[in-house]
Amino acid sequence: MSLKTGLQRIVLVTGANKGLGFEVVKKLAQKSSSNTNPVIFLGSRDLKRGQEALHQLGSPPNVHLLQLDTSSEKSVTHAINEFKQKTNDQLDVIINNAGILPKDDSVQAARETLATNYYGIKIVNEHLIPLLRDNGRVVNVASQIGSIILMCMSKDLQNKYTSSTLTTKQLDRLVEDFLSALEFNNLKKAGYPDDLHYLAYGISKAALIALTRVQARQYSDGKNIFMYSVCPGFCNTDINKHAPGTRSPELGADSILYAVNTPNDKLENGAFYFDGKKLPEICVNKAKIEGLIKLTEYLRAST
Ligand SMILES: NC(=O)c1ccc[n+]([C@@H]2O[C@H](COP(=O)([O-])OP(=O)(O)OC[C@H]3O[C@@H](n4cnc5c(N)ncnc54)[C@H](OP(=O)(O)O)[C@@H]3O)[C@@H](O)[C@H]2O)c1
């Protein structure tokens, strides 16, 4: 049965059963008491965890659960069919928030990370962007770690990742080249840093920032839609094991929602934002590498 949505904005948030995605849904659901409240789909890969999240929100009538595992094409197809039936093929905002940190530095963990943080988002976008209404937008939750990792790559790789003519096919190739360099112990020669833990996470976020720019260019040709990547900042959630020095998930959600709610003519299509400020794709602050090393040491020590 389809929902009566009328003029309401329809928003999908992936990975929203906890952490930043949950905060985003909470803030969107509280946004106004008028009948133009958005209709929100709370994405969760696990049905039970999604139901618990919905319950924790007080089961607002405008929030609906959608089981969606972004790393599985089967789950994506199934969820999208369900979504289409419920919304009559309409959508205004996709917030690609689901993300993981690799369990360790293995190739297997790197593949899993890229499947969720890069390929999963690419597939969700390919299926859902055609449903976006005029002025629709996509917000991809990336991380400044992506821009720090880019700073640590060879000039040649930096140029490839940030090329204004980059295509999704070439970007997939870059991601596959990274995985094979990791597998064959060839990182340094291939232009990647070989002394950083959780490198696959940084690569996944660098690729996501690039994907946002590439897909923004690709899709704005035929349609009035906008895409942004955002960093929520270093926030107190499970992904970083509630590391010291984090800020609140509420602030992280605000950084994401800035890209959701700011008029499109005040933002640059395809660009990367943090707390409402546009950031360069390649970080220019070398001191940030030190912070990243400290964080990876903390994460390794707490596993
Ligand atoms: N927290 C930070 O400091 C920080 C900084 C920069 C960027 N980010 C990014 O912010 C996003 C949200 O992270 P968070 O901090 O809120 O972490 P979190 O608390 O660990 O939440 C991650 C969410 O993503 C879901 N998820 C993971 N893999 C998924 C998949 N294949 N399909 C669907 N959902 C999946 C998780 O579901 P389960 O509960 O089922 O595992 C969970 O709901 C991530 O993309 C992360 O990389 C976070």
From TrEMBL:
Pfam families: adh_short (PF00106), adh_short_C2 (PF13561). GO terms for molecular function: oxidoreductase activity. It comes from the Eukaryota. InterPro entries: NAD(P)-bd_dom_sf, Sc_DH/Rdtase_CS, SDR_fam. It comes from Rotaria sordida. PANTHER family: CARBONYL REDUCTASE 1-RELATED, CHAIN DEHYDROGENASE FAMILY PROTEIN, PUTATIVE (AFU_ORTHOLOGUE AFUA_3G15350)-RELATED. Coiled coil: none annotated. Keywords: NADP, Oxidoreductase. This is Carbonyl reductase.
